[in-house]
Specification:
The chain is of the alpha/beta class. The chain contains five helices and six strands. It binds guanosine-5'-triphosphate and magnesium ion. Magnesium ion binds next to helix 1.
């Protein structure tokens, strides 16, 4: 039997952390050095097949610029899954990610499966956020955590696939 599961997924995180780049890598397997900053939000669709289930993600790639903050609830409300993205080379983006997690915990749907992505993992020389620090935070907040690179594609498919698995199990 082939089952189809539709799932709304939202990406949240500071400006320039690589939300759009992660989506572009996942949906089109492409990367661009000069990705334009998102205005409002962008919509994408992609499927993941897990055994006999096709998970169809409706993906909302939100804009990280602060002036769009008030739009975010429209995208995370009713989301089955959320990926909160920070940039491993910017401690401030990790602080912002924690704020997003808090907001989701307070205002979002309690059933939303949340992942934390430490993106730009290819930029090891510029690292400001230690993997252990992020791992610990993720464990304390029941988030699923991975470091990713939209540039090299490392862990990008994996994070979406893991979310799909958890959605099927939920
Ligand atoms: P907003 O839409 O403004 O919120 O930003 P965003 O989170 O969508 O970031 P975006 O995908 O636009 O990426 C910002 C910049 O970081 C772009 O120049 C990307 O090329 C670059 N970038 C994104 N992901 C990676 C990555 O994994 N590694 C490296 N080295 N650069 C990346
Ligand atoms: Mg963007």
């Amino acid at each position: 039997v082939n089952k189809i599961k539709n799932a709304k997924l939202v990406l949240l995180g500071d400006v320039g952390t690589g939300k759009s780049s992660l989506v572009l890598r996942f949906v089109k397997d492409q990367f661009v050095e000069f990705q334009e900053s998102t205005i409002g939000a962008a919509f994408f669709s992609q499927t993941v097949v897990i055994d006999d289930t096709t998970v169809k993600f409706d993906i909302w790639d939100t804009a990280g610029q602060e002036r769009y903050h008030s739009l975010a609830p429209m995208y995370y409300r009713g989301a089955a899954a959320a990926i909160v993205v920070y940039d491993i080379t910017l401690q401030a983006s990790f602080a912002r990610a924690k704020k997003w997690v808090q907001e989701l915990q307070a205002q979002g749907n309690a059933n939303t499966i949340m992942a934390l992505a430490g993106n730009k993992a290819d930029l090891l020389d510029a690292r400001q956020v230690e993997i252990e620090e992020a791992k610990k935070y993720a464990e304390e907040n029941a988030l699923f955590f991975m470091e990713t690179s939209a540039k090299t594609a490392a862990n990008v498919k994996d994070i979406f696939t893991e979310l799909a698995k958890r959605l099927i199990e939920a």
